[in-house]
Amino acid sequence: MASTKPGQRKLQILQALASMLEQPKGEKITTAALAARLSVSEAALYRHFASKAQMYEGLIEFIESSVFGLINQIAEREERGIDQAHAILQMLLGFAASNPGMTRVLIGDALVGEDERLQSRMNGFYDRIEMACRQALRVAVSQGHGVEDDVAARASLLVSYVTGRWHRFAKSGFKQNPAEGTAVQLSLLLAA
Predict the structure, then answer these.
(1) pTM of structure
(2) Are 83 and 89 in contact (CB under 8 A)?
(3) Whole-number Å distance between alpha carbons of 122 and 132
């Protein structure tokens, strides 16, 4: 790693952290273990990140930019609100399946014992996800699918469904794919 540029080193640190989070046992990750994995000193980690919390913030930023970038693409691509909601849910489940380590951040598992602001930030992430679902469902209502009074409750239910699938994935040691077998469930959740 000696010849890497600073931006690349930060990325390597975050990739190593995400990789360590993929371990099914889900033990707390220390900066010493992370440094050892990268064959650098802990001081080298702190040249790029002021704290371990800042490293987790880097992962959260990746999650947010990826997920909300995809949600924006879905909203632009799908005209029907119900199709938007379905695509958002599928994307959220697929994102977790493709990023097991990030799933532990998504469910807060990796943030236990870390700085409280990290969990607060993830709570804000959930609020934004629910808002995106609400928006898609409002579009669906304007197109004759469902009723306005149900939008908030249904959006909350959809987010709870996704987080439940994420938890099951993480608690199964990443064996139970969160996106597998969801077609019927999503159809029931999105039925008028």
Answers:
(1) 0.91
(2) no
(3) 15
